[in-house]
Design a protein that fits this description.
The complex is a heterotrimer of chains A (329), B (285) and C (317).
Chain A: H1 2-7, E1 13-24, E2 27-39, E3 44-48, H2 55-63, E4 71-79, E5 82-83, H3 89-95, E6 100-103, H4 117-128, H5 133-146, H6 152-155, H7 165-177, E7 183-187, H8 195-208, E8 213-218, H9 221-227, E9 230-235, E10 238-244, H10 245-250, H11 255-262, E11 310-312, E12 315-317, H12 320-323
Parallel strand pairs in A: 3-8, 3-9, 6-7, 7-8
Antiparallel strand pairs in A: 1-2, 1-4, 4-5, 9-10, 10-12, 11-12
Chain B: H1 2-14, H2 18-39, H3 73-108, H4 112-125, H5 129-140, H6 144-171, H7 174-181, H8 186-222, H9 234-241, H10 250-278
Chain C: H1 2-41, H2 44-49, H3 55-65, H4 71-83, H5 97-132, H6 137-149, H7 154-168, H8 180-191, H9 195-210, H10 213-220, H11 225-247, H12 249-263, H13 268-277, H14 281-309, H15 311-315
Classes of the chains: A alpha/beta (329), B mainly alpha (285), C mainly alpha (317).
């Protein structure tokens, strides 16, 4: 499967106008609204946004691991030439763990407490590769060594509770990459960790990114800045701005991106720490037009219709002010 | 959306759960039977009529059939309800009256009272209650009052344990600790904060415990250790039926059905109270 | 490896120690209660001699059994005797009370063993199936059936089983102990005491475990629903189920009393009913002690089993 990825010249992954909704008694409640992004070979894409912006749901929808009551309403997911929206559960089970590996947020709860970590690693190998149990175990030990877990040959027989949080997250990373997937998804991989461990885990993901494409879901611009070459900013179920990491970090255009950057605490005193005014919208609220309008300092009448994601000088912004003059900075 | 959620939840709250209504309905009907039946001219529970022995259910004179002495099973069942209901409700009340205060005391007094009470709860729960009941009745003798006493005295830890666990959780809540810092008296905290919060689980536990007591009472009577042998109780009726399973299976099915009906009703009521006051049903996991 | 083994043994030791202390307190409390209640509620000499005994006979019996001594002295002698495993002689048979009771242990052991096996074999698969997807409509119907089954007392189940399989169909014997076919109905009847509860708890544990993050991890490596249920979820859920079986064992013993009486099973339960009805107090007292020990052993074994099965307890003792 990796070979096909290597020879594929088009994007590895393309999401086009993906919409996801929860059916409720009074109609569908949209949680993802026309999401689009593409991922090329070697890309490290950062999906950045506040909690509730739909960044986790977008990666769960391409694993088809959405909550049972969520539905993909429309749109396309093209992964290595396969249409994932219409893929069956059996197809997805072949793809999960083999072509797409996933790293989860909380290393304390994402490992089964009554199973040895080696069981999980070898299970994944045996499921997707035709090798003997002994070979699978060797592969598992090597995977643990790759994530710099000390004494992997002994650790493999440990239970999760015998490891520290950072060590567990290393195991989760080893598990996600054990079958050399073409795409690695990391869903808030450092949020639950101590700051010191955070750096090591980010470094591991960066190392993994040398061999494959990565999507990093995070609320932390700092983490995205360290390892991503592309960034997509999400707000309330929509992508509001996307471009290269450099464009977004040095010259953000969308008012929300700017506000989000200003809200990152820094040590230097030049930038005053500025919280975003207002509260993030509740998932139950509905808006006409741009969903950032209620909090936006630049909101005007035309914001009552939804701004499309438009290409402005090499990066895309969904904001009426960005395409017109008179944007306050 | 948020508005509709609260609205539908509020609707669920005010509407009585169907199970609760059905359960209460069955208990009321069973309770009225012994008073209504004589008015309808049904034969008395103890009227022996050897010409009418082993009458099948569905006959005009005996709606639910008759037993080996020709006694009417419907009338006996109705009278048996009075006996079983009274025994079960009184032992439940005794259990609650002892268990709830002791549970509260154990939660409130963290020193030796808690240790002693918890140890007693622990010991009683680890010994089979029916065995203990039989041993005690062997000593103090059979009868209605000794049955109620023994069951009540043996099963209060059920209430004590629940009250203890829940009041301890409430006493450790921030608002209660804050109230104590502000100088609110301990008894006032217990009565204003703890007791009202315990109401849902106490009511539900009472209903479930009533069901357990009814089963225990009929089991003891069935074994010949509960009610006096000649009285019309469901346990005694079941014990009688054992010799006639071949000729008259309805002699077993009528009291058995009555026990199941009342126990399920009590469970429905307990479950309904849980759903009504706590918003979760024990049936749906 | 060596130290884990030592820790396991240490854990077992501490379980036995703690439970053993509780057992001693329980037995002492039981004996005290039985002794004084018996003295308070009537004259044991009358019980021993019968209602129409002459005063001379009563005096003789009092002297023989030491009933003329002060109450506390009597209690001391009584405890001393119990400590030497002397519970007195059965009033009904004249045999040593403890021997009579111990003779009934194997039959009860067999019945509880069979019933627990039956309960686990039925409840765990049913609970796993139910808890894997409790919202499905077929399982809603199932949940109602379990709810109603919980309201059917065990002795009613026993009587209905006898009615159907022994009386109507004539397939199985209703009474007896000697043959394998004798074992079937009592096993199912006693099993019915715990099956609904264990099924529901297992289902609740499975349903809860299904929402855990580690299930999502297992799905993310491509595991299918059956594999996840049996290999990832059930090992977690079973710990709770085993704990329940242990905690409910004394309830099962209550059931044994009823079921043994119905099926004429020569165990502790039937002996308890017989000796109660004949006011055979030495046997009742010996029974209370033996049953306490019985429950203690099962509870301790459950604790130990959980300590061995749960890796978290096993290492961090």
């Amino acid at each position: 499967m990796n070979n096909t990825a290597m020879t594929n010249t088009g994007p590895i992954l393309a999401l086009q106008n993906l919409s996801v909704a929860f059916p409720t008694k009074d109609g569908d409640r949209a949680v993802l609204d026309n999401i689009s992004f593409t991922l090329h070979e070697g890309d490290v894409l950062g999906l950045v946004g506040e909690s509730g912006s739909g960044k986790s749901l977008s990666v769960l929808s391409l694993m088809k691991l959405l909550p049972p009551n969520a539905r993909i309403k429309s749109g396309k997911i093209n992964f290595l030439g396969q249409d994932l929206v219409h893929a069956t559960e059996n197809d997805m089970r072949r793809i999960r763990g083999r072509d797409i590996g996933m790293i989860f947020q909380d290393p304390f709860s994402s490992l089964n407490p009554v199973r040895r970590i080696g069981d999980l690693l070898t299970e994944s190998v045996l499921r997707h590769q035709k090798v003997s149990k002994a070979v699978a175990r060797d592969i598992a030990i090597k995977a643990l060594a790759d994530v710099a877990l000390p004494a992997p040959a002994e650790r493999i027989d440990n239970y999760p509770h015998q490891l520290s949080g950072g060590q567990r997250q290393r195991v989760v990373i080893a598990l996600a990459g054990i079958n050399n997937p073409s795409l690695l998804i990391a869903d808030e991989p450092t949020t639950a960790l101590d700051p010191t461990v955070r750096m090591q885990v980010l470094a591991l993901i960066k190392k993994a990114a040398t061999k494959r494409s990565v999507i990093l879901v995070t609320h932390d611009f700092g983490a995205a800045a360290q390892i991503c070459n592309r960034i997509a900013v999400m707000y309330y179920g929509r992508v509001v701005e996307t471009g290269t990491a450099e464009q977004i970090l040095t010259a953000p255009v969308h008012p929300y991106t700017k506000a989000l950057m200003a809200a990152v605490p820094r040590f230097s005193t030049e930038h005053a720490f500025a919280p975003i005014p207002g509260d993030p919208p509740k998932p139950t609220e509905r808006f006409d037009g741009c969903s950032y309008r209620p909090r936006c300092p630049a909101a005007a009448d035309d914001c009552r219709s939804i701004p499309p994601l438009t290409d402005v000088g090499g990066h895309s912004i969904a904001c009426w002010r960005a395409t017109q003059p008179g944007l306050p900075s | 959306m948020s508005a509709t959620v609260t609205a539908s939840r509020r609707k669920d709250r005010t509407a009585l759960p169907t199970g609760l209504v059905i359960g209460l309905g069955i208990l009321v009907i069973m309770g009225l039977l012994p008073f209504v039946l004589p008015l309808l001219g049904a034969p008395g529970a103890d009227v022996i009529n050897l010409y009418d022995r082993f009458e099948k259910p569905g006959s005009l004179s005996h709606l639910l059939g008759s037993d080996h002495l020709g006694r009417d099973l419907l009338a006996r069942m109705a009278v048996g309800f009075k006996w079983s209901f009274a025994a079960a409700i009184l032992s439940t009340a005794l259990s609650l009256a002892i268990g709830a205060p002791l549970g509260l005391l154990a939660a409130d007094q963290s020193g030796w009272p808690r240790r002693v009470i918890l140890q007693i709860i622990n010991l009683t729960m680890s010994f089979p209650s029916l065995v203990a009941a039989i041993c005690l009745i062997a000593i103090i003798g059979q009868g209605f009052m000794s049955l109620v006493l023994v069951l009540g005295l043996l099963t209060w830890p059920v209430f004590a344990r629940i009250v203890y666990a829940e009041s301890l959780a409430i006493l450790e809540k921030d608002y209660v600790i804050a109230a104590r810092f502000m100088g609110v008296k301990q008894w006032r905290i217990l009565f204003r904060h703890v007791l009202p919060a315990l109401r849902p689980s106490l009511l539900a536990t009472t209903a479930f415990h009533f069901a357990d007591m009814l089963i225990a009472e009929s089991a003891l009577s069935f074994l010949g250790i509960g009610a006096p042998i000649d009285s019309s109780t469901w346990g005694n009726m079941l014990a009688d039926s054992r010799s006639f399973l071949f000729q008259a299976p309805w002699m077993m099915l009528v009291p058995a059905g009555a026990i199941v009906l009342v126990v399920v009703s009590a469970n429905l009521i307990g479950d309904g109270i849980s759903t009504l006051l706590r918003g979760r049903s024990q049936r749906s996991l | 490896m060596h130290s884990t083994y030592a820790k396991k043994l240490g854990k077992v030791g501490s379980i036995v120690g703690k439970r053993g202390f509780d057992l001693l307190v329980l037995i002492l409390a039981l004996l005290t209660l039985l002794f004084f209640l018996l003295r308070l509620t009537g004259d044991p000499a009358v019980v021993l001699a019968g209602q129409d005994a002459t005063p001379e006979m009563l005096a003789e019996i009092r002297a023989f059994h030491g009933l003329d001594k002060p109450l506390l002295t009597q209690f001391g002698i009584y405890l001393y005797n119990v400590l030497h495993l002397d519970f007195g002689t059965s009033l009904a048979t004249g045999r040593d009370a403890l021997t009579v009771v111990v003779g009934a242990v194997p039959a009860t052991l067999l019945m509880t063993f069979l019933a627990m096996g039956f309960t686990i074999l039925v409840s765990v698969p049913l609970g796993a199936w139910w808890g894997a997807d409790p919202q499905r409509s077929s399982r809603q119907v199932f949940s109602w059936s379990v709810f109603i089954m919980q309201g059917v007392p065990g002795f009613v189940v026993a009587l209905v089983l006898v009615q159907i399989f022994a009386v109507d169909l004539g397939w199985l014997p209703a009474l007896g102990y000697d043959r394998l076919s004798n074992w079937v109905l009592p096993t199912i009847a006693l099993g019915s005491f715990l099956v609904p509860k264990l099924t529901r708890i297992t289902a609740a544990n499975v349903a809860e475990a299904m929402n855990e993050d580690y299930v999502r991890t297992a799905r993310a490596i491509g595991a299918g629903p059956q594999f996840i249920l049996w290999r990832h979820v059930l090992p977690n859920a079973l710990l709770g189920s085993i704990a329940l079986v242990g905690a409910q064992f004394s309830f099962l013993i209550s059931g044994v009393v009823v079921i043994e009486s119905i099926f004429a099973w020569p165990g502790l339960g039937r002996l308890l009913i017989q000796s109660t009805l004949t006011l055979d107090f030495p046997v009742v007292q010996a029974l209370a002690v033996v049953i306490s020990i019985f429950v203690f052993i099962v509870n301790a074994l459950t604790d130990i089993a959980i300590a061995f099965l749960d890796p978290r307890i096993r290492v961090s003792s």
